[in-house]
Design goal:
The protein is α+β, with helices and mostly antiparallel strands. The protein has eight helices and 14 strands. α1 packs antiparallel against α2 and α2 runs antiparallel to α3. It binds aspartic acid. The site of aspartic acid has 14 residues, from β9.
Length: 349
């Protein structure tokens, strides 16, 4: 909500749509409690946080992107500098970090106590045959200095069901399992059957201004526990975001691999150019994904997808829409005073 409110505020002051989006998502990138984006995002298989982001400017039809950038908490701002200062579109890995440092960004450890703890818990439950002790085998010493800890310390508290844990723009639980809270630091986010936080989580922001110029930005820590070096859809122009100043803007969150393989955001903008409304285009893009997913492992016994994607679209005249594969997607929209939360249309309950 705060992202779109700030973006709207800056647009009203005459900001360029792409920059307003980048500044808006920075609020979430900076938030240590958001485990899907920027600082404190969930790390990869090695426990390292690798971030992906891109932004696109409608009037110039120019884009900037960074993939697998480490130790820099605002990848969207770095992507904007790639767009503004270079003739390239995308920098990755070490080169992206070095570019960021040269542009004045601070290098820092992006893991928080919470993200490190989440990784350790995931690692502990990885494989029954590995040499890491499982969660219920880890030796916990009492921590009398911890407030309210009279017993066994971290990892021994009881589980209880509590809500679905969706939160923030485009945050999508995956797998159709019930999500539960263990009552510890991971309240409010989706947990897998071992109680590990597991997210597909991303922020996308699209904007149009009074002159009907558009811009957009997507930023993420990507799929949690991903293979090192994995790049999702978020920094890929046409996949995790796309805009065309003659039409509008679109973006995606959720299973990046599916979005990449269908070029979802590009397709939505083209579909709007062909006359579809933003919502129709988002729904049709979801359907395109499902229709092109052929592996049985991606569906449950009832043929319901085990994954979701949510699309967001804004037409240059301000019409907007959102849709997801599975019910539960949502977006924040700001067209004047304050943001409102909008439920995404969906294909499957
Ligand atoms: N699309 C992102 C990725 O695949 C993750 C997400 O949006 O949840 O990296």
């Amino acid at each position: 909500m705060k992202t779109v409110e700030l973006a709207f505020d800056l647009l009203a002051k005459g900001g360029r749509p792409v920059e307003c989006c980048v500044r808006g998502v920075k609020i979430v990138e900076d938030d240590p409690n958001d485990m899907s984006v920027g600082y404190g995002g969930l790390p990869n298989e090695d426990g390292v946080i690798q971030l992906d982001s891109a932004c696109m400017d409608g009037p110039l039809h120019r884009a900037g992107a960074v993939g697998c950038i480490e130790n820099i908490k605002n990848p969207a701002s770095v992507a904007l500098e790639v767009l503004r200062h270079t003739d390239h579109v995308m920098l990755v890995g070490e080169g992206a970090t070095r570019f960021a440092v040269r542009m004045g960004f601070k290098e820092e450890d992006l893991n928080t106590e919470k993200s490190r703890k989440a990784w350790k818990r995931w690692r502990a439950n990885l494989n029954p045959g590995d040499k890491w002790l499982d969660k219920d085998q880890i030796i916990n010493f009492p921590e009398p200095w911890r407030q309210g800890d009279a017993s066994g310390g971290a990892g021994t508290r009881g589980a209880g069901t509590r809500g679905t844990g969706t939160r923030g723009t485009g945050f999508q639980p995956v797998g159709g399992k019930p999500f539960h809270s263990t009552g510890d630091d991971f309240d409010h986010i989706a947990l897998d059957s071992f109680g590990n936080p597991h997210t597909y989580g991303t922020i996308h922001c699209s904007a149009t201004n009074a002159d009907q110029d558009v811009g957009c930005c997507t930023t993420t820590s990507g799929l949690s526990w991903k293979l090192p070096g994995r790049v999702g859809d978020s920094p890929l122009i046409g996949a995790g975001l796309y805009c065309d100043n003659a039409v509008g803007s679109a973006g995606a969150t959720g299973r990046g691999e599916s979005v990449i393989q269908t070029l979802g955001s590009f397709w939505i903008v083209e579909a709007m150019a062909g006359g579809m409304s933003p919502t129709e285009a988002c729904l049709a893009a979801c359907k395109r994904i499902v229709d092109r997913t052929h592996e049985p492992r991606m569906f449950d016994d009832n043929k319901r997808p085990r994954f979701s994607v949510t699309f967001y679209a804004v037409r240059k005249d301000g019409a907007y829409g959102t849709a997801s594969i599975l019910k539960g997607g949502h977006a924040a929209v700001c067209v004047g005073e304050g943001a409102t939360r909008v439920r995404s249309e969906f294909l499957y309950e």
